[in-house]
Amino acid sequence: MERASYPSDLSDEQWELIEPVITGWKQARVARSATGDPGDCDLWEIVNAIFYQNRTGCQWRFLPHDFAAWSAMFYYFTLWRQDSIDQQIQELLRCQAGEKARRLEDPSLVAMDTQTIKAAAGVPATTTGLDADKRSPGRKRGLAVDVLGLIIGVVVLAASAPDNAAGIALLDQITERCGNRLEKVLVDQGFKDEPIIHGAALDITVEQVKRDPDQKGFVPQAKRWIVEQANGTLMLHRRLVRDYEHRLDNSASYVFWASIAVMVRRLTVPSPRRRDSDKAMA
């Protein structure tokens, strides 16, 4: 029996955007397998389940019964994280979104920022800490985005880690993904000398966008505000409002999947989801 669709489900056009990466991964895995058994899971439904969980914030065991077994969903989520499939899809869609906006694939300007997220009960204390500046416990999520707000780099650390550590890790990521065209990175005053020195070694100008001391409350800073908007968009995914993950790389993977969900909607026009289409054809 076909299940009813959820608002987070991929439409046909959206699935076509990421299907080549998923299919290529599956074929490569079958070729490496000793048995050659490709398995019988519907990979489209696996992505739908990840999107559903990320948007609603439910636990794996609380996925609706009309999905496949939760253990199978978690198994594929883990495999795709280990094989960097989430990052490959993210990069593919980022390039396509940039092309649609008539921009070059590699940006020359990037904005970086960090955000402290509270950790759920049960998250290992060894991967959490206290953000001394914000006086908030949990984890620190660092983002690097281009001028369209498309995510290029993600790093997750204990909240006690300084912004400098996140900045250096993000600089290494975006240098690898943006090539030699990257010229300038905008940061706030939480980033000190270390990222500036590290950026200079990479031939990148790291510029602090300083706040006007006369300004009161939150005031968007020119060009750097886009990373604040990206953080706000991530908060629409309830799984990211609080950090539930035991592993830091799982936390980063959920950010990539949230970004993928945003970009497939940017790249497609509204259309019936597969389940609705099947019913209409019946």
Oligomer: single chain
Computed structural class: alpha/beta
Helix content: 40-55%
Our count of helices gives 9
Broad CATH class of one domain: Alpha Beta
Query: Whole-number average pLDDT?
Result: 88
Low-confidence stretches: none
The arrangement of helices and strands along the chain is: HHHHEEEEHEHEHHH
Beta-strand residue fraction? 5-15%
What's the architecture of one domain, going by CATH?
A: 2-Layer Sandwich
Morphology call: globular
Rounded to an integer, what's the Rg over CA atoms?
20 Å
The overall strand count is 6
End-to-end Cα distance = 13 Å
Q: Fill in the CATH topology of one domain.
A: Nucleotidyltransferase, domain 5
Largest sheet: 6 strands, mixed
In short, what is this structure?
The protein has 282 residues and is an alpha/beta fold. 45% of the residues lie in helices and 13% in strands. It has helices at 12-32, 43-56, 70-82, 85-100, 163-178, 193-201, 225-234, 248-267, 274-281; strands spanning 109-117, 129-131, 136-145, 151-158, 184-187, 205-208.
Describe the SSE topology:
Blueprint: H1 12-32, H2 43-56, H3 70-82, H4 85-100, E1 109-117, E2 129-131, E3 136-145, E4 151-158, H5 163-178, E5 184-187, H6 193-201, E6 205-208, H7 225-234, H8 248-267, H9 274-281
Parallel strand pairs: 1-5, 5-6
Antiparallel strand pairs: 1-3, 2-3, 3-4
Helix pairs in contact: 1-4, 2-8, 4-8, 5-6
